[in-house]
Amino acid sequence: MDKALLELFWEVPVIFLSLLLLTRLQGKKQISHITYFDYITGIIIGDVAAGVLADPHISLGRSMLALGLLSGLTILASYIAEKSRKVRKLTEGEPKIVIKNGKILENNLKKLRLDLDNLRMLLRKKDAFSLAEIEYAVMETDGSLSILKKAEHIPVTPQDLNLKPTKSTPSIELIIDGEIDEEKLKEYGKSKEWLMGTLKDKGIESVEDVSYMEVNQQGDVFIDETNDRTTT
Protein backbone atom coordinates (compact mmCIF):
# COMPACT_ATOMS: atom_id res chain seq x y z
CA MET A 1 0.00 0.00 0.00
CA ASP A 2 1.18 3.52 -0.81
CA LYS A 3 3.00 5.26 2.06
CA ALA A 4 0.76 8.35 1.75
CA LEU A 5 -2.32 6.17 2.22
CA LEU A 6 -0.83 4.44 5.26
CA GLU A 7 -0.11 7.82 6.85
CA LEU A 8 -3.83 8.66 6.69
CA PHE A 9 -4.56 5.93 9.25
CA TRP A 10 -2.84 7.95 11.96
CA GLU A 11 -3.16 11.47 10.52
CA VAL A 12 -6.98 11.34 10.34
CA PRO A 13 -7.41 10.37 14.06
CA VAL A 14 -4.89 13.05 15.08
CA ILE A 15 -6.70 15.76 13.08
CA PHE A 16 -10.10 14.55 14.33
CA LEU A 17 -9.09 14.60 17.99
CA SER A 18 -7.34 17.95 17.57
CA LEU A 19 -10.44 19.55 16.03
CA LEU A 20 -12.60 18.07 18.79
CA LEU A 21 -10.29 19.47 21.48
CA LEU A 22 -9.99 22.89 19.83
CA THR A 23 -13.76 23.12 19.38
CA ARG A 24 -14.33 22.36 23.06
CA LEU A 25 -11.72 24.94 24.07
CA GLN A 26 -13.46 27.63 22.01
CA GLY A 27 -16.66 27.12 23.98
CA LYS A 28 -20.22 26.30 23.00
CA LYS A 29 -22.30 28.61 20.88
CA GLN A 30 -25.59 27.95 19.15
CA ILE A 31 -25.49 27.90 15.36
CA SER A 32 -28.03 30.74 15.27
CA HIS A 33 -25.70 32.89 17.43
CA ILE A 34 -22.55 32.46 15.35
CA THR A 35 -21.21 35.76 14.04
CA TYR A 36 -19.49 36.33 10.69
CA PHE A 37 -16.14 36.32 12.50
CA ASP A 38 -16.89 32.88 13.98
CA TYR A 39 -18.12 31.65 10.61
CA ILE A 40 -15.01 32.75 8.71
CA THR A 41 -12.67 31.42 11.40
CA GLY A 42 -14.44 28.07 11.30
CA ILE A 43 -14.05 27.86 7.52
CA ILE A 44 -10.31 28.63 7.74
CA ILE A 45 -9.73 26.05 10.48
CA GLY A 46 -11.69 23.46 8.52
CA ASP A 47 -9.72 24.25 5.36
CA VAL A 48 -6.39 23.87 7.17
CA ALA A 49 -7.48 20.52 8.62
CA ALA A 50 -8.68 19.30 5.22
CA GLY A 51 -5.48 20.44 3.50
CA VAL A 52 -3.22 17.98 5.27
CA LEU A 53 -5.57 15.12 4.44
CA ALA A 54 -6.01 16.07 0.79
CA ASP A 55 -2.42 17.04 0.00
CA PRO A 56 0.29 14.55 1.07
CA HIS A 57 2.95 17.23 0.55
CA ILE A 58 1.61 19.27 3.48
CA SER A 59 3.24 18.12 6.71
CA LEU A 60 1.05 17.19 9.66
CA GLY A 61 3.26 19.17 12.03
CA ARG A 62 2.83 22.38 10.02
CA SER A 63 -0.95 21.90 9.90
CA MET A 64 -1.18 21.19 13.64
CA LEU A 65 0.84 24.34 14.37
CA ALA A 66 -1.45 26.38 12.09
CA LEU A 67 -4.57 24.92 13.78
CA GLY A 68 -3.18 25.69 17.21
CA LEU A 69 -2.27 29.28 16.30
CA LEU A 70 -5.63 29.97 14.63
CA SER A 71 -7.58 28.51 17.53
CA GLY A 72 -5.42 30.34 20.04
CA LEU A 73 -5.97 33.66 18.28
CA THR A 74 -9.71 32.98 18.09
CA ILE A 75 -9.88 32.23 21.81
CA LEU A 76 -7.77 35.31 22.57
CA ALA A 77 -9.99 37.52 20.40
CA SER A 78 -13.11 36.16 22.13
CA TYR A 79 -11.59 36.79 25.56
CA ILE A 80 -10.59 40.35 24.68
CA ALA A 81 -14.02 40.96 23.13
CA GLU A 82 -15.65 39.94 26.41
CA LYS A 83 -13.63 42.61 28.19
CA SER A 84 -13.81 45.40 25.60
CA ARG A 85 -16.90 46.64 23.78
CA LYS A 86 -14.72 48.32 21.14
CA VAL A 87 -13.06 45.01 20.27
CA ARG A 88 -16.47 43.33 20.30
CA LYS A 89 -17.72 45.82 17.74
CA LEU A 90 -14.66 45.10 15.60
CA THR A 91 -14.99 41.30 15.67
CA GLU A 92 -18.76 40.93 15.84
CA GLY A 93 -20.09 44.21 14.48
CA GLU A 94 -23.11 45.86 16.06
CA PRO A 95 -26.88 45.72 15.58
CA LYS A 96 -28.39 48.07 13.01
CA ILE A 97 -31.90 49.49 13.01
CA VAL A 98 -33.62 48.84 9.67
CA ILE A 99 -37.12 50.06 10.59
CA LYS A 100 -37.64 52.98 12.98
CA ASN A 101 -40.97 54.49 13.95
CA GLY A 102 -42.57 52.44 11.19
CA LYS A 103 -40.25 53.84 8.53
CA ILE A 104 -37.75 51.75 6.55
CA LEU A 105 -34.18 53.04 6.84
CA GLU A 106 -32.99 52.43 3.26
CA ASN A 107 -29.43 53.64 3.96
CA ASN A 108 -28.97 51.02 6.68
CA LEU A 109 -30.38 48.36 4.38
CA LYS A 110 -27.76 49.29 1.78
CA LYS A 111 -24.97 49.09 4.37
CA LEU A 112 -26.16 45.60 5.29
CA ARG A 113 -26.51 44.56 1.62
CA LEU A 114 -30.12 43.70 2.43
CA ASP A 115 -32.92 44.20 -0.07
CA LEU A 116 -36.63 44.57 0.66
CA ASP A 117 -37.44 41.03 -0.45
CA ASN A 118 -35.03 39.57 2.11
CA LEU A 119 -36.29 41.98 4.76
CA ARG A 120 -39.88 40.85 4.15
CA MET A 121 -38.77 37.21 4.32
CA LEU A 122 -37.15 37.81 7.73
CA LEU A 123 -40.29 39.58 8.92
CA ARG A 124 -42.48 36.67 7.82
CA LYS A 125 -40.31 34.37 9.93
CA LYS A 126 -41.36 36.56 12.84
CA ASP A 127 -45.05 36.13 11.91
CA ALA A 128 -45.18 39.67 10.57
CA PHE A 129 -46.70 39.56 7.09
CA SER A 130 -47.04 43.31 6.64
CA LEU A 131 -44.49 46.08 7.03
CA ALA A 132 -47.32 48.24 8.33
CA GLU A 133 -47.32 46.16 11.54
CA ILE A 134 -43.72 47.02 12.48
CA GLU A 135 -42.63 49.86 14.74
CA TYR A 136 -38.96 48.87 15.07
CA ALA A 137 -36.79 46.20 13.44
CA VAL A 138 -33.15 45.56 14.31
CA MET A 139 -30.68 43.39 12.37
CA GLU A 140 -28.61 41.55 14.98
CA THR A 141 -24.93 40.67 14.63
CA ASP A 142 -25.75 37.01 13.98
CA GLY A 143 -27.96 37.88 11.00
CA SER A 144 -31.28 37.45 12.78
CA LEU A 145 -34.00 40.11 12.89
CA SER A 146 -35.59 41.39 16.10
CA ILE A 147 -38.87 43.25 15.80
CA LEU A 148 -41.23 45.36 17.88
CA LYS A 149 -44.75 45.51 16.49
CA LYS A 150 -46.94 48.58 16.68
CA ALA A 151 -49.17 48.68 19.74
CA GLU A 152 -52.33 47.87 17.80
CA HIS A 153 -50.73 44.73 16.38
CA ILE A 154 -49.36 43.30 19.62
CA PRO A 155 -51.44 40.30 20.78
CA VAL A 156 -53.38 40.77 24.01
CA THR A 157 -51.94 38.83 26.96
CA PRO A 158 -53.71 37.57 30.10
CA GLN A 159 -51.83 40.26 32.04
CA ASP A 160 -53.42 42.94 29.85
CA LEU A 161 -56.86 41.58 30.80
CA ASN A 162 -55.96 41.25 34.50
CA LEU A 163 -56.37 37.49 34.27
CA LYS A 164 -54.46 34.93 36.30
CA PRO A 165 -53.68 32.06 33.95
CA THR A 166 -52.95 28.62 35.31
CA LYS A 167 -49.34 27.51 35.35
CA SER A 168 -48.29 26.00 32.04
CA THR A 169 -46.61 22.60 32.01
CA PRO A 170 -45.38 20.54 29.07
CA SER A 171 -47.54 17.76 27.69
CA ILE A 172 -46.52 14.23 28.67
CA GLU A 173 -45.70 11.73 25.92
CA LEU A 174 -47.19 8.37 26.77
CA ILE A 175 -46.63 6.47 23.52
CA ILE A 176 -43.94 7.04 20.92
CA ASP A 177 -43.57 4.83 17.83
CA GLY A 178 -45.89 2.17 19.20
CA GLU A 179 -44.12 1.83 22.56
CA ILE A 180 -45.43 2.90 25.97
CA ASP A 181 -43.16 5.17 27.97
CA GLU A 182 -43.53 3.48 31.36
CA GLU A 183 -41.73 6.26 33.25
CA LYS A 184 -43.91 9.01 31.78
CA LEU A 185 -47.05 6.98 32.45
CA LYS A 186 -45.98 6.59 36.08
CA GLU A 187 -45.17 10.30 36.24
CA TYR A 188 -48.70 11.07 35.04
CA GLY A 189 -50.07 8.84 37.78
CA LYS A 190 -52.03 6.50 35.54
CA SER A 191 -51.94 2.75 35.00
CA LYS A 192 -51.44 0.75 31.85
CA GLU A 193 -55.07 -0.35 32.17
CA TRP A 194 -56.17 3.29 32.00
CA LEU A 195 -54.07 3.83 28.90
CA MET A 196 -55.47 0.76 27.14
CA GLY A 197 -58.98 1.81 28.10
CA THR A 198 -58.38 5.25 26.62
CA LEU A 199 -57.18 3.68 23.39
CA LYS A 200 -60.21 1.39 23.19
CA ASP A 201 -62.51 4.39 23.67
CA LYS A 202 -60.88 5.80 20.51
CA GLY A 203 -61.41 2.51 18.66
CA ILE A 204 -57.75 1.47 18.89
CA GLU A 205 -57.06 -2.11 19.96
CA SER A 206 -53.26 -2.20 20.06
CA VAL A 207 -50.51 0.11 21.28
CA GLU A 208 -48.57 -0.77 18.13
CA ASP A 209 -51.25 1.02 16.10
CA VAL A 210 -50.33 4.32 17.79
CA SER A 211 -47.55 6.48 16.42
CA TYR A 212 -47.81 9.11 19.15
CA MET A 213 -49.93 9.80 22.22
CA GLU A 214 -49.73 12.65 24.70
CA VAL A 215 -51.82 14.17 27.45
CA ASN A 216 -51.74 17.84 28.54
CA GLN A 217 -52.25 19.45 31.93
CA GLN A 218 -56.02 19.71 31.35
CA GLY A 219 -56.23 15.98 30.76
CA ASP A 220 -56.87 16.30 27.02
CA VAL A 221 -55.49 13.35 25.09
CA PHE A 222 -53.97 13.60 21.62
CA ILE A 223 -53.46 10.40 19.61
CA ASP A 224 -51.92 9.97 16.19
CA GLU A 225 -52.35 6.51 14.67
CA THR A 226 -49.66 4.77 12.70
CA ASN A 227 -52.05 4.22 9.80
CA ASP A 228 -54.36 7.20 9.93
CA ARG A 229 -57.76 6.47 8.51
CA THR A 230 -57.89 9.57 6.36
CA THR A 231 -58.50 10.16 2.69
CA THR A 232 -56.29 12.21 0.41
TrEMBL record:
Originating species: Ammoniphilus resinae
Chief site of localization: membrane
Keywords recorded for this protein, A-Z: Cell membrane, Membrane, Transmembrane, Transmembrane helix
Secretion signal span: none
Gene3D superfamilies for the chain: bsu07140 like domains
Protein known as: Uncharacterized membrane protein YcaP (DUF421 family)
InterPro entries associated with the record: DUF421 (IPR007353), UPF0702_alpha/beta_dom_sf (IPR023090), YetF_N (IPR048454)
Membrane-spanning parts: 6-24, 36-54, 60-81
Domain YetF-like N-terminal transmembrane: 10-80
Segments forming domain YetF C-terminal: 83-216
Assigned protein family: Belongs to the UPF0702 family.
Localization terms from the record: Cell membrane
Pfam families per record: DUF421, YetF_N
Membrane topology recorded in Swiss-Prot or TrEMBL: Multi-pass membrane protein
Domain of life: Bacteria
